[in-house]
Fold each of these.
Amino acid sequence: MNGQNFQPIRLIDYRPPEFLIDELLLTFRLKQRGTLVQASSMIRRNPSADRRNGPLRLCGEQLQLVELRLDDRRISLQDVCVTDWELIIENVPDVFKLQITTRVDPEDNTALSGLYRSSAIYCTQCEAEGFRRITYFLDRPDVLARYTTRIEAPQEECPVLLANGNLVAAGEMDDGFHFAEWQDPFPKPSYLFALVAGDLVKIEDEFVTASGRRVTLQIYVHERNRNKCKHAMVSLKKAMRWDEQVYGREYDLDQYMIVAVDDFNMGAMENKGLNLFNAKYVLADPRSATDQDYLAIEGVIAHEYFHNWTGNRITCRDWFQLSLKEGLTVFRDQQFSADMNSAAVQRIEDVRLLRQFQFREDAGPMAHPVRPDQYLEINNFYTVTIYNKGAEVIRMLHTLLGPETFRRGMDLYFQRHDGQAVTCDDFVAALADAADRDLTRFKHWYVQAGTPRLTVTEQWDERHCTYVVTVAQATPATPGQPDKLPLHLPLLVGLLGSDGGDLAARVSCPYERRGNDLLLELKEVQQDFVFREVPEKPVLSFLRGFSAPVIVNPFQSREEAAFVMQHDSDLFNRWDAAFSLAEAVILECLAKLVAAETMELDPVYLEAIHYLVGHPTDDRSLTALALQLPAENHLLQALKQIDPVALHEARRFVKQELAGRLADGLLNLYHDNEPSATYRLTGDQVGRRSLRAVCLDYLVLLGEEQQDLLELCAHQYRQGGTMTEKIGALSALAQVPGALRDEIFDHFENQWRSDPLVMDKWFALQAASPAADTYDRVKKLLDHPAFSLKNPNKVRSLLGVFGQNHVHFHHESGRGYRLLADRICQLDPLNPQLAARLMQPFVTWRRYTKDRRQLMEQILQEIGGQAGISRDVYEIVSKSLA
Ligand code: ARG
Ligand code: ZN
């Protein structure tokens, strides 16, 4: 394999920086090729460094060094050492000024890290290590400097010039250039630097903070998108108000800017005062964006805004602490979305994502703790573990401490560490101090990878009216961590009586009550929880609200699960009961299929779903969620050896069977829930649209015999006034190849070919389709004029989604593997970060049937053998093969 010389970065090697930079003046003279960057820094030796006489070592990549001056004297470039990743200057004084001029070519920057151009806009992405692609610098988050940024650019091409902070000067220059100077009063690490220049329009609004300061809010987009920013602006104002009300945090600059760009590796970026967004998370109108898009925009806008306190004012000491800001900020944005919309729906969506993607990561060769201790390429660690398991860890602290104490802990954290770069330990220490609790064992969550499994056993003593729940925990071994410590976790539970009511208030037990729930704290490998004066044998409602990110081994009968599904006061657990029931039923069918027995639908399950269809709750989104079967990505985790085709067939059988048996009920649900003609983003309306989409998704499977059901789909597509309804119809139809499907997909393409975000949906629906012709279509779509390897949204919609299409990606011939692998090798030299993300479906290759295993292993070796392989892809390949 190539790339063996990449060196891992280790947490134990962390040392404070030898130098500090307090002040930085940046001047950009922008050109598509040959942008000149002058960086003038005030540098001094760090009094608390381990070493006080070493050379100055600055990070730098893909730079052309033009000139160097130390205390205004020019240094010959012969007297310094320049490597592919560093500039080393020997014998520097203790305090000095350094001026560096570098040259970069934004137009050729396809990696989308550093300074690049996207749809004629100059923009930057510096997290994690992009700033070193702009100038030589101490590009690490524990070096905080005050930035002044001067941008010079052709006025015609770039009427708008933006950087962090406040505008302090602007004016015209010679030869059609103009300039703007921005000053950011808050010291910040280089990863929060941002610059934007281009032809953009701005949408403006105002926010008055709790203490009465006026903040100007601006969203910058291309002229053609001017009318698609309203929802983002409303979301921003909601987020600002919420952070004041719930966390007592106010915004701290006079201006807050958001810029939407078309080419972006991630979702968005929290640069101080100047957020950069993937256009997907800003632009929306009902005609072109779905309800899901609207909700995602609200969540991401809030996420980036919340970073201002959790990430910017208090930042990370090093990148091992990434979850300090990401886990905490995801937790905050989840809380926000739960408050703005349906809390139960939000929780279900968050848990679905965690189970499908994080549990899968945690069980494979890329498993890592929330605070990793080693990496090759930090960009590979912007993971569901750091983000979403990290958020679960914060949520557990919130549950253990209770909301008031948690808030006091947060206040203490802000008070202690404002303006600092700190660690996850510092964060937990603030909470522990405020709560006056010992959280030592809890901290294992930060250092231990793997998803714990809980085993639950119940004992009912009728004579003494005593009920005992025994819970045992075990975390499986993960790479580099063969032995696991027990964790401290909160278990919220309820006891249901035979009438379905909560018994918790009536029983005697030493556990803290939280509303309807009891809080059990598991700290040992195994513990008994005893409840006395229990009037009858209860049905246990375990792990309410998914109070800990664990897998619970099934312990209830299907009848009990159906009971929880109907009666639990915890809406999350109602859904979860439906989900685990469906999981058990599908896996049972799969076992039959593999054993060549006839598959049958379990009558208990059928009855439970029948009841659900006949008695939908007021929160229609909840009913819609309960009707959806677990994704293949989730189901396969329970299998010893994965045969993706058999799994798909078993799941499809259950779906088809439900459709057939419940057709009348589903059709009634469909007709009873027509949304209003004018678009509104209320729970009621969103619920109607999603419930109808689920109904269609089942009903269309009966289309072969009942043509009118296909017509129902077509009718919704043609008459539906919103993108949500159109996508609902399209995604149902995508399952049934035929003339009608083709006609409608073609119609959609013709209508939307010039809207890239809508075309992403069109690509994704085809790449996700189980229909037999998917491989051929995807292959053809790679040459579609709207597709481009250079645009990450396109790559994710077509190739990323195809990699998650289990039947087709894992086709026994290996053609699916080949298709993806070829594109990864093509993409790696252009955008290694994105190429590495596409590797994900190969990572768990060892879990598949023998023939597939062999094919994937070969492919991994082939990718690993590429000349010039990036550190990003190399890390994924080598860890997968290890
Ligand atoms: N901090 C950003 C966010 O979560 C993510 C940016 C990461 N970008 C990257 N290239 N690794 O909001
Ligand atoms: Zn973030």
Amino acid sequence: MTNPLPSSVDSPIVRFQGVTKRYGPLTVLDALDLDIARNEKVALIGPSGSGKSTLLRMLMLLEDIDDGLIEVDGRPLTHMPGNGSLVRASERWKREGRSRIGMVFQNFNLFPHMTALENAAEGPVAALGLSKKEAQARAAELLERVGLADKLDHYPAQLSGGQQQRVAIARALAMRPQIMLFDEVTSALDPELCGEVLNVIRHLGDEHDLTMLMVTHQMGFAKEFADRICFFSEGKIVEQGTPEQVFGNPQHERTQSFLRAVM
Ligand code: ADP
Ligand code: MG
């Protein structure tokens, strides 16, 4: 049995339709379809090189797709209306669509010459036109929420990896995104620092009307956190379902062998 229930969702907040991405001869995403419901928490799992990060990068429009369509809230991100049909999106159109999405990467990507507060306040000033004072008030509140009220004036080098990653989460949230993307956000951390970051993510899931997509190798967390697990193999989602379905009773041979190896 392959690919049970490509769950169709009414008015999804994110829709990938036949999305294909190639690097030279390599097809990294292969006509991929995926609908994500508002406020849904989705974990993307699968072997290294199967296309999980590429999917998130395409949603952030970090690069163009080769075929297909990506929509956010019913608005095509990759294409826009023109000449009676959809044409390739302009940079401005992409920027506007992307502004609803926040992303946190494996390697924090903080500005080293800015304090935690300045890092988290920078986006709202630069991209949303908030005053420095308004942006810093928003940033301070978010840093408090991720447990860093006493670190506002610290530079990244003065913070642990877990603290830096929490600054990165606060920085993404400062843009008030509807959708948050997390790409292996704990894999650069020592095991004892993963918990504090996962706790922040867990609370975000509870407190906010946020749709979340997370690439993770931590199956225990995926199981507890996600409404839906999507298993990737070679640029396709070969199996998806609830954590109970995918972890408890995987159908596809590749899911079974992957889970045997990692759990
Ligand atoms: P995953 O996140 O599942 O480990 P990725 O999405 O990072 O996988 O990568 C999927 C495939 O695409 C890999 O084979 C990777 O080497 C390739 N790839 C990713 N980015 C590039 C790029 N910029 N140029 C060429 N190949 C790439
Ligand atoms: Mg990856």
